[in-house]
Amino acid sequence: MKSIEELFAELKVVPVVVLDDAKDAEPLAKALVEGGLPCAEVTFRTEEAAESIRIMTEVYPDMLVGAGTVLTTDQVDKAVESGAKFIVSPGFDPEIVDYCIEKNIPVFPGCISPSEVAQAVKRGLKVVKFFPAEQSGGLAMIKAMAAPYNMLKFMPTGGINTKNLKDYLACDKILCCGGSWMVKGDMIKAGEFEKIKKLTREAKELAE
To answer: Hey, what domains does the chain have and what are their CATH numbers?
Structure first.
């Protein structure tokens, strides 16, 4: 079976999703799967996140669904119980990272400084999130930071779009990119799932 990291490397783009209403989870999952990116990082910024993850994983068991913006170990439990296959946190929270490692849950903490990267490497992590990517120095920062930590790969998220996706993916230190441009909240709210499918397909093609 392929690891989460291997699946991310194949996908190249991970849609980062905010769902305010769990009823949108199924049509959104369908749009992502049909658009060629059977994956979603569902952010725990809303009350509906856990239920949305549950629906997505039930309807599309092969879809790679994880939880993002995870800020507490309680949220880790809630996400995993709902079917999340990986955990993403915006920053490096040692308590969350250690908790996930202990329970054998794939975790990708946000690291934007050498000190945070050092903490991740010390714990044996091979991949970390880099967030907010563009605001934190983007590609130049990742390349500079990756130099002494050549065993580590990054998942930049934040400010990534069709204009800079190719540049990021061209760097061998980048495993995949997180992005929300193909799954914007207003498109989900308006039920524009055909548009989401089209943008997802374009993102997939651009990444390849």
So the answer is: 4-200 (3.20.20.70)
Of 179, 150, 186, 185, which Cα lies nearest the Cα of 163? 179
Query: What's the average model confidence in pLDDT over 134-163?
Result: 96
Phi, psi of 177 (to 5 degrees): -120, 140
pLDDT digits (tens, 9 = 90+) for 172-203: 999 999 999 999 999 999 999 999 999 999 99
From residue 198, alpha-carbon distances to 34, 70, 133, 151, 162 in Å are 9, 29, 25, 35, 13
Asked if residues 192 and 154 have their Cβ atoms less than 8 Å apart, the reply is: no
Sign of the torsion formed by the C-alpha atoms of 186, 190, 195 and 197: positive
Specify whether the CB–CB gap between 175 and 154 falls below 8 A.
Answer: yes
CB 182 within 8 A of CB 198: no
Residue 68 near residue 46, CB atoms below 8 Å: no
Q: Which amino acid is at 142?
A: I
Q: What's this model's pTM, rounded to 2 decimal places?
A: 0.97
DSSP for 76-89 reads: HHHHHHTT-S-EEE
Mean pLDDT throughout 109-114?
Answer: 97
Task: Give the residue numbers marked as catalytic.
Answer: 41, 129
Q: From CA 4, how far away is CA 1, in angstroms rounded? A: 10
Tell me the pLDDT band of 26, cut-offs 50, 70 and 90: very high
166 φ/ψ angles, rounded to the nearest 5 degrees: -60, -40
What is the reported pLDDT for 202?
A: 98
